[in-house]
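Appendix B. Worked example

We walk through a single record from start to finish. Start with the input: the chain for VOC domain-containing protein, Bradyrhizobium sacchari, length 151.
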Amino acid sequence: MSLELTVPVPRLTVITLGVSDMCASIAFYDALGFSRRLKATGEAVAFYDTGGPVLALFPWDQLAADACLPDDPRPAAFRGTTLAWNCRTREEVDAVLAFALSKGARLLKAGCATDYGGYCGYFADPDGHVWEAVVAPGIEVGEDRRVHLAE
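Next comes the structure step. The output line below is what the pipeline stores for this chain.
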């Protein structure tokens, strides 16, 4: 007897960040201008429309428990993951960095030229999740806010 495996269509639909303080994180991402959806969830979980995959915020300890991982110790250092805010111009990168800082982000790296012909800078949200503001060759941001990659 042969079992035929159905191959699912790969997709990235939600990026969930574990956060220490739901109120503070909701206020931060609201202030960045992301559009919160399903507000009926209150502070239990927060969902944001990003123009692509959904960004979700969930209490760190509950997220760890849900994934069957220990809540402690929490990594204090870089976790090997960044979130990107792709921009259309170098000026937009600098504007995103300044805007994020004005809303409580911490600057990790000021905008600067990259070795691949782009321009980027980094900031961290209140829980230390790292964001890159970037403009890069071959990656365009359309009017639909979605990233379009060159062939």
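Two observations about the output. The mean pLDDT is 91. The helical segments are 22-32, 60-66, 90-102.
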